[in-house]
Automatic annotation (TrEMBL):
The lineage of its organism: Eukaryota, Viridiplantae, Streptophyta, Embryophyta, Tracheophyta. Keywords: Calcium, Membrane, Metal-binding, Repeat. It comes from Arachis hypogaea. This is Calcineurin B-like protein. InterPro entries: CNBL1-10, EF-hand-dom_pair, EF_hand_dom. One of its GO terms (biological process) is calcium-mediated signaling.
Length: 246
């Protein structure tokens, strides 16, 4: 698995990128079922148009995303909802083994906090990774990803936990001293108040000075899903092989 350790322990999004490449061989056939899956909107509103207005995707992109959503939401139980097990199975190929990154991303996508991801939540969550999404939006998502305890701050033990999880997924081993140096370096730069934690404003400033920290917060293939579909319409076998070779 090609996973890269960044200064702040940010998840390597290459795994997500490869999964979402599977969109390229899926069509744009949005069924009537989408009305139930997109979320709660006024009956007279077109749910797809609402999502297009709220995200970086256009209408046909949303239809393509719906095909991926159907695949993920039926991988274990075909109920039109993505469970945590289905989410982890789709992204990491294992529905049983606990994965901190899968847990954190799932929790952030699950804005309703009901233990499942509806289609609207799925699209809004992915929109953060769109190339057109603004840097502050990406930074805010990355902050919440690292705020494991949901305290409103990033603390040293949370950064350590993220780094250790990332190293485990990468099958890498760093000494405790090296991990501590990474944490110390990050907090030396980011913790402007010197109170041992990073608040959202400090994080935004930290990212503004170090924009490369967000390089894994963008999935280029989300920019033009229909173009990808035209280029790779018959490439499902190739994509599956590519995912297995990560």
């Amino acid at each position: 698995m090609n996973t890269e350790v960044t200064l702040d322990g940010t998840i390597d999004i290459n795994i997500l990128r490869s999964i979402y490449q599977s969109l390229v061989w899926m069509g744009c056939s949005f069924s009537k079922q989408r009305q139930r899956l997109i979320g709660h909107h006024k009956q007279e509103e077109d749910p797809a148009a609402v999502l297009a207005a709220q995200t970086c995707f256009d209408l046909c992109d949303i239809e393509a995303l719906y095909e991926l959503f159907k695949k993920l939401s039926s991988s274990i139980v075909d109920d039109g909802l993505i469970s945590k097990e289905e989410f982890q199975l789709g992204l990491f190929g294992n529905s049983k083994k606990r994965n901190l990154f899968a847990d954190r991303i799932f929790d952030l996508f699950d804005s309703g906090k009901d233990g499942v991801i509806e289609f609207g939540e799925f699209v809004r969550g992915l929109s953060v990774f769109h190339p057109a999404a603004l840097q502050p939006q990406k930074a805010a998502f990355a902050f919440r990803l690292h705020d494991i305890r949901q305290s409103g701050f990033i603390e040293r033990d949370e950064v350590r936990e993220m780094i250790v999880a990332l190293l485990s997924e990468s099958q890498l081993v760093f000494s405790d001293d090296i991990i501590q140096l990474i944490i110390d370096k990050a907090f030396q730069e980011a913790d402007l108040k010197g109170d041992g934690k990073i608040d959202p404003d400090e994080w935004q400033q930290f990212v503004a000075r170090n924009p490369s920290l967000l390089r894994n917060m963008t999935i280029p293939h989300l920019k033009d899903l229909n173009k990808e579909f035209r280029n790779f319409e018959s490439s499902s076998d190739f994509i599956e092989d590519d995912i297995r070779n990560l």
